[in-house]
Specification:
35% helix, nine-stranded mixed beta sheet, globular, 7 helices, alpha/beta, 227 residues, 22% strand
Length: 227
């Protein structure tokens, strides 16, 4: 049974910040962390099984465990149970000694909440209860509910995104949203996602977008920030 309480353990012109092949989570995480600032809304997007969640787990590991000055992170894992996401973070922390990695992770200021179907309002309340926070991760946006009468998936995203941007500003911490791209991206010869594939409200609100491209020949990460 999945836990339902927190468990410890574009209308503006974008500017290209970085692009690199073979988006190993460690490399991508280091680049993302180098561009993190308080109040940012950051979108990590791709088709399924390309590496969004692993990238997020590596970012959490780096800022909350693999640093002399860790910050508190709150992860809302709406697709995976707490122990599954924790294993991803453990893998990111692992450096040859499993016991040492597990001990390090057990001491890290990380909270994982895997409440299914959580609303944006409830998520915001929990973040404020946990404040001060240095990072919030939401995996993934389409599973977050507005708490209002259901409309289309597009309507739900339009309703929750402004609240998430405000949350980032109120916490003065980056909020990372994982977003699953539509199927039409797979129909392109290179399967390369573009900024225009995002929901418009999300693209407008995001301060930074990380686009993950699958495939052996076109495996890359692009990090785009608003100028």
């Amino acid at each position: 049974m999945r836990r339902k309480a927190p468990t410890h353990i574009n209308s503006t012109v974008p500017g290209l910040v970085n692009e690199f092949p073979n988006h190993e989570p460690e490399t991508a995480a280091a680049c993302v962390i180098g561009n993190l600032h308080g109040g940012q809304l950051i979108t990590v997007t791709s088709r399924p099984s390309v590496g969004k969640t692993n990238l997020a787990a590596h970012v959490v590991a780096r800022v909350s465990a693999l640093t002399p000055t860790p910050v508190s992170s709150a992860v809302f894992s709406l697709e995976e149970a707490t122990d599954m996401f924790a294993m991803r973070i453990l893998s990111a922390v692992f450096c040859g000694n499993l016991h040492q990695a597990a001990t390090l992770l057990s001491q890290a200021p990380i909270v994982i909440d895997d409440t299914p179907g959580i609303s944006e309002l409830k998520l915001t309340d929990r973040c404020r209860d946990l404040a001060p926070l240095g990072l919030v991760v939401i995996d993934y946006l389409q599973l977050l509910q507005s708490g209002l009468e259901h409309g289309s998936p597009e309507d739900e995203i339009n309703r929750v995104v402004p609240g998430l941007k405000k949350l980032a500003e109120d916490l003065d911490a980056p909020v990372i949203i994982l977003f699953q791209l539509p199927r039409h991206v797979d129909e392109r010869p290179d399967r390369r996602p573009e900024l225009s594939d995002l929901n418009q409200a999300l693209a407008d609100a995001s301060d930074m977008v990380i686009l993950l491209t699958p495939g052996h020949d076109h495996h890359s990460t692009r990090i785009i920030a608003k100028s």
